[in-house]
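Methods — Computational structure assignment.
A single polypeptide chain was analysed. Its primary sequence is given first, followed by the predicted tertiary structure written as structure tokens.
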Amino acid sequence: MPTKTALLQAIAQCNDEEFLEKLLQHFQQRAEKPDSVSVFTALKQSQEELAGLKIQKEKFFSIVSYELGSPLNSLKSMADFLMMDVEAADNPFLLESAKMLMAQIEKLQQQMSNLIEWSNMEVKNYVFTCNTFAVREILETAVQLYEKQANTKSINLVYKPSKSILVSGDSRMLQLVVNNLVANAVKFCRKGDSIEISATVQDHEALIQIKDTGIGMGQAKIDNLFNVNRKATQKGTANENGYGLGLITCKVILDLHNTPLRVQSEQGKGSTFSFGLPTVG
């Protein structure tokens, strides 16, 4: 049986709110006994601290979402107008600079989307809307979004149009999943590599697959891929930075859809990410 000191230390380190609530009720019933009072007090204090931290986390994520998201959207709109003027001007250097600016803004927007979605799901502040849609809609949107980045790195982005496959799920969330998977493939592909995006039907399920011939990874990295506490993330082939939230967000979203994110990869030979969705009709 653990000592009272060990029990108090375990309570202080616990961050499971539901468990603390049940434990608190248990000790509350026994609080009239002298040897239970200190444990009950420590438990109540830990629960109050956890509730306070949760409120602070929700407030922080709300501030990040509004204070960074809104100005970034405004900046994107201004850059769109700038691009129209620059394209009309006969200045190759200015045009190339504007394209680089647009690419960086779009990258920041993607990272912000990941942060906001992940934070919303962390504090359970999201609305899951299940609807019926065509798979090609989210695939074609992702191709259009990352075609320029792929061309800049001389990567062959191949989209294999599929017949009209209708699926069920949250199309907005699943769009973010596909965007992240394509962005990840572009990040870790070298000049001359290729990325293939496809969707097929297998046993009443639409299998969406993003396959690349990039640098790949070993089993150790695959095992640590969805660990939110990992210290560092690998830079891309063009020295691109990242926060590691993209694939983690994908996994959380697909968990909500009760479907796994499958990963196959081999060092130096590329990676394949895939997931299934229930077909409709």
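Note: The chain is about 55% helix and 15% strand.
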